[in-house]
Write a structure and sequence with these properties.
The structure is a homodimer of 538-residue chains. With 538 residues, the first copy, chain A, is of the alpha/beta class. Chain A has helices at 12-22, 59-62, 68-71, 112-116, 144-147, 157-171, 186-197, 214-220, 239-247, 251-254, 278-290, 332-337, 343-346, 375-386, 394-438, 472-486, 518-536, and strands spanning 82-83, 96-104, 121-127, 178-183, 205-209, 226-230, 232-233, 236-237, 261-264, 294-298, 352-357, 369-374, 444-445, 454-459, 488-489, 491-492, 507-512. In chain A, the strands form four sheets. Chain A has a seven-stranded mixed sheet, with helices on both faces. A four-stranded antiparallel sheet of chain A has the order 13-14-17-16. In chain A, a hairpin with an 8-residue loop joins strand 13 and strand 14. At the A-B interface, helix 2, strand 1, strand 2, helix 4 and helix 7 of A face helix 2, strand 1, strand 2, helix 4 and helix 7 of B.
């Protein structure tokens, strides 16, 4: 079997055809979802089955049973059954009769001005009882009465159908028994995943990039999970180094069994901005397969992949990609083909749990995302969710369903992603232009990021006049403090070191191009350059 | 110091006066909240300080450090600081320009008809940039740009201010350094609390009612936390029995240290419907104080306290309390005085973490509630939230702020609670009328609940013709199956047994009056009665 990339492709038209055949989705309060019924690719059953991961699970996860009250929902299938079972409030008691939102349709682009205008915007409304209106006058398949009541931990059937379709469109999973669950965001998904796979009593350790997302490290530490950092290059973690660590693992010396979980951010990695190529992903997957390592693929920036940075010619004006962005011109296929394939696309063993997020592409405050993994892993994930967060909140589910399913559809959402991608490309270019202009290249070096929202600046410690007197950490602090004095906040590289007790591999600072205006980003980099120059006495 | 009940009372007028003095709340994206600045009772500083709970914390909780990226927010206070620090998206990228909701004002009551009508309903709107409109044209203090971005794990200042005021109004905390944090609902709060206070490696056990909320038991079990059930009467758990268990604790025989955490649902307990009186709460608190036990007070049904059930006279029609409910006639004081004081009101040591929920009184789908405890405990709670759920979602925060703060205010919300209370009272009465009419009292017995949404039916096993052949569990199953056959779903008592390996204290079934219509509830109880009669051969 080839493992060089996705082995099939479905289209939005395929999804629409399947839905037409299915007919209207009927899913009442806390309905149970048949995930497979929403899969579009007809050949899914012929794909290989996922491996079992029982030996990888923690004691906590392995011991989870189903929720007895939620299980009783099975009796409610009988039409004349009256439930005095679960304490679900009646929607009559919900104080909200309808919810409306002002959004851009995409017809004239996705800017705030478009959303506000008559031509480019519309107001959409979610009623309390939309899903149970008479068949001759259908409104939405989802509503406030269902969406704001208790639901299943995995998510509502309505939102899950959209997520399954989108995942199949983007990830084209490579094995048959893949499944999904909504999450309360990827921070929560990672907390649950670490508790599922790592066992404090077993002294389990976690593999990750040598510079890793600080919040991920802070999630692992209190659980007693020590971290092994894997060296990186401009494409992220090095498979050879990963293989070396695992092949030479000395359990006695380490006081820990050989690690069986890798946490990685493959695209626009936080903090380094590195993006793994397809070849890199294949190599990493192959090492994980060799050592039976499970992969936690965290991809908040996946859709923020962008073309390579082109320095502008001297004196030329920078063209903002957003100013030339035409939603009508962007085809779904063209957009999807521009992205490096996901680990799920390559994963023929069910070795991956992918974490998807709406935080960076819609709103962080939705606190809703989803995970994709084998049905075995998803089942354990749901058991955990049932007694923890109970799953994604109802407001996010009904409102994002209205936006993504009823208003934009899959194609509209891809066009929105194109808009966001163009906007981040423009922001990245502004930041990098400023770096070209204001930073002393003999001291500061970088690789232009091709995804995400972060730029990683290496500062050569060896060239510092006090290199022999001051530790790397002390120098980093000195430059950081100078930055603060000059009025620019950047993140210190040491905050992201996977192994806090090891010497740092170098001096780095992380800058984001996510939020500040073009003018302010430029000024901020000027200030940063000044701070470095002063510190180095240039 | 007296411990007989709340020692002060603040009023809505006091809150309004404090707010007027404070002026407009300015709290931008991810602003840090000064909790104490929102306290209205001027004498709070003179109350005793909470005890320290370091010895009660788990290794996991004790080892949590602050989130390094969130801590960097402190540098942003300088007005000319440009942040290239945190990866917070710009609100320009949020696809929602405004959100509107149709709600009842309360002027003509809170029914769905009132909300839909011109006289009783209104449509309120949350804009994207409301909080930064010019001072001469102020809109809301909160908006989409702030609310739907990343925030602090504790919650937004806007929503926290409302929660602190409401908590002070209802709970009148009895010590000075009390604090609050928003939660992702009480299920999540309990999961976090158990991980904070119970340590698997220490073999910590948990005290609770002998019949307890099944999901709470399912939360504890996979964490390796064994449960000790405390016997109950019609007022819930028995303090004498609690004292006996703790006084006679044999750590060696139990394989566990003396328990230091009690989980209790004081009002409308799930599943028994029992409500602890003030005297009972004082007695339980005193035993916990004697043995240094920390109390987790779970109060989803606190505002669903209701007058005692009065059987209707033969042939008389039942008057629905909702039909006579007049919001104008309900004063805040009268409503609050009708409630048994909370544990927080009695807690002069900071021994309690109270969990409040909007699920039963607004919508379950908000997945937002709050906890009240000492600032030490809240600080640990927030550290946990930062690397787990990241706190309550933004949609719930902006929409419930609009409802509770901007539209209803504290007084309006109390009137809404009065409406909900009246509605549940009416539902309880219908269910109990049906029990009076259809159940064989020689076999089935009950105490009419005075809070919550559950009714607990005891069925006398000793009178069953097969009492000597069949186990209690087998009999319970037989009756349950008959119920299912007849088309009524009730919950089995055994599902709620705190100690699953111990003999059951009796045969019980839990019925809810939360959701089914009056007609269906009556029919359901008729079916249940029929099932019992048939099983008993009556």
């Amino acid at each position: 079997m080839s493992t060089s990339g996705p082995r099939y492709r479905i289209t939005v038209a395929d999804i629409e055809a399947r839905r037409k055949k299915e007919g209207r989705l009927v899913a009442a309060t806390a309905a149970v979802t048949d995930i497979d019924s929403f899969k579009t690719y007809a050949g899914w059953k012929d794909l290989p089955k996922a491996k079992r991961w029982d030996s990888h699970l923690s004691k906590e996860s392995a011991s989870r049973g189903p929720c007895v009250l939620k299980s009783a929902a099975k009796y409610l299938k009988r039409p004349d059954m009256i439930s005095l079972g679960g304490g679900l409030p009646t929607p009559e008691h919900f104080p909200i009769q309808s919810i409306s939102m002002r959004i851009a349709t995409g017809e004239t682009g996705f800017t705030e001005a478009a959303a506000a205008s008559d031509e480019g915007g519309k107001t959409v409304t979610i009623g309390k009882y939309d899903s149970t209106q008479p068949a001759e006058n259908p409104v939405s398949e989802y509503d406030i009465a269902v969406g704001l009541n208790y639901g299943q931990a995995i998510g509502s059937s309505q939102m899950l159908r959209w997520v399954i379709e989108h995942t199949e469109l983007v990830c084209t999973p490579a094995y048959s028994d893949w499944s999904v669950s909504l999450t309360v965001g990827s921070t929560s998904a990672l907390d649950q995943a670490l508790r599922m796979f790592c066992d404090r009593e077993r002294n389990d350790m976690l593999l990750t990039e040598e510079y890793s997302f600080s919040s991920a490290l802070e999630t692992a530490a209190p659980l007693g999970i020590r971290v092994v950092g894997v060296s990186m290059d401009e494409q992220g973690l090095l498979p050879e180094r990963l293989d070396e660590i695992l092949s030479g693992w000395d359990a006695a010396a380490r006081g820990a069994p050989k690690p069986h979980v890798l946490y990685t951010v493959p695209s626009g990695q936080n903090p380094t901005g590195a993006t793994q190529s397809l070849e890199r992903r294949l190599a990493v997957y192959s090492v994980c397969s060799k050592h039976n390592v499970f992969i936690l693929e965290d991809e908040p920036y996946y859709f923020l992949q962008m073309p390579a940075y082109e320095p502008k010619a001297a004196g030329a004006a920078r063209v903002d990609p957003l100013s030339t962005y035409e939603p009508a011109a962007l085809s779904t296929d063209k957009f999807l083909d521009s992205l490096v394939p996901t680990y799920v696309s390559l994963d023929y063993e069910g070795r991956v749990m992918r974490m998807d997020s709406f935080s960076k592409v819609l709103v962080p405050g939705s606190r809703m995302g989803w995970v994709t993994a084998s049905s075995q892993i998803i089942e354990r994930y749901i058991r955990h969710t049932e007694t923890c967060t109970q799953g994604a909140n109802g407001f996010s589910q009904v409102m994002l369903f209205e936006l993504l399913n009823n208003s934009w559809g899959h194609e509209g959402y891809i066009k929105w992603l194109g808009h966001i991608q163009a906007s981040y490309t423009g922001r990245r270019d502004v930041l990098l232009d400023a770096c070209e202009e204001f930073l002393p290249k003999e001291i500061v070096s970088w690789t232009p990021p091709t995804a995400g929202m972060f730029h990683w600046l290496g500062v050569d410690q060896t060239k510092h006049p006090k290199a022999k007197e001051l530790s790397l950490l002390a120098l980093e602090e000195e430059i950081f403090e100078r930055c603060i004095e000059k009025g620019v906040l950047v993140a210190r590289g040491s905050w992201f070191a996977a192994e806090q007790d090891k010497p740092l591999p170098g001096m780095f600072f992380r800058a984001t191009f996510a939020a500040a205006s073009a003018e302010k980003m430029t000024e901020a980099i000027r200030r940063f350059g000044e701070a470095v120059r002063e510190s180095y006495g240039l």
